[in-house]
Design brief:
4 helices; 76% helix; mainly alpha; 0% strand
């Protein structure tokens, strides 16, 4: 949705425990998680007109966030399958 946070636990509530475990135990996942939420914060500021930027830059950020979200989701699925 436009103008709201897309937190990973909110996006994948059924994997809340897996996400928590990965955040605590997997440094690669932690890096992706932090980067994702940093992008999400920046996009939210742009959408709320707190930060002025070009439409092209905003779209680039959204694409990066989507790709990162896919990587995070795949890692969650991998972890869930082995748990």
């Amino acid at each position: 949705m436009f103008g709201e946070h897309h937190d990973i636990p909110k996006e994948f509530p059924e994997y809340k425990d897996v996400i928590k475990r990965l955040c605590e135990e997997d440094s690669d996942f932690q890096l992706m998680y932090v980067e994702y939420h940093g992008l999400d914060d920046e996009i939210l500021k742009i959408e709320q007109n707190v930060e002025a930027t070009s439409d092209t830059y905003a779209e680039e950020l959204k694409k990066k966030r989507a790709l990162l979200k896919d990587r995070i989701y795949n890692r969650i699925l991998e972890e869930n399958a082995t748990a």
